[in-house]
């Protein structure tokens, strides 16, 4: 009587062990003979030891981290600036609303700039977006230096906010893609250290 197809074993081996799992090594020896060893995978010597990033990689990481320094400085300096600005903007003392807008506009414009920078980096390249962020940092700083009114100061801070959003995404991405895997963590952390250093420098 023929067995039902549903009752037939899923795996039929030639050694009489139908439906049983066969170890890879045992299966290899069964097919190729007991005297043939398993093939060994040779690991290249350069892959066994971590590759030193070299001086150029460290210089590149610190250069890219300058954006983090400006990030920390621009977000930290405003607290001391609002105290000492007096009536230099719009020829009147700053109101609570003025101070709130001047402070918050940087974070407000950094929020959409961050995902937009990711799209731009995929389309135009990381280096070009990073250079654009640095240009915006400089342009925003100059704008704030010559600002005579509250709206002008808000506009300058908004330009800096776009740079902050772009730099906060692109700098660690740029460093991590260039760094060797074994040194990636310590090179990326330069960005965080530079942000903290910028905030320290901004503190009077």
Descriptive notes:
By secondary structure, this protein is mainly α. It has 9 helices and no strands. Helix 6 runs parallel beside helix 8 (150-178). The longest helix is centred in the middle third of the chain and has 29 residues, at 96-124. It is elongated, with a radius of gyration of 30 Å. It starts with 23 loop residues before the first helix and ends with a helix. Residues 5-22 have low confidence and may be disordered.
- Mean pLDDT comes to 78
Question: How does the helix and strand content classify structurally?
Answer: mainly alpha
Sheet-strand content, in percent, reads: under 5%
Q: Can you count the helices?
A: 9
Q: Major β-sheet, in short?
A: none
Describe, in short, the structure shown.
The chain has 204 residues and is an all-alpha fold.
Give me some keywords for this one.
204 residues; elongated; mainly alpha
Provide the fold topology:
Layout: H1 24-32, H2 45-48, H3 54-64, H4 66-76, H5 78-84, H6 96-124, H7 126-145, H8 150-178, H9 184-202
Helix pairs in contact: 3-8, 3-9, 4-8, 4-9, 6-7, 6-8, 7-8, 8-9
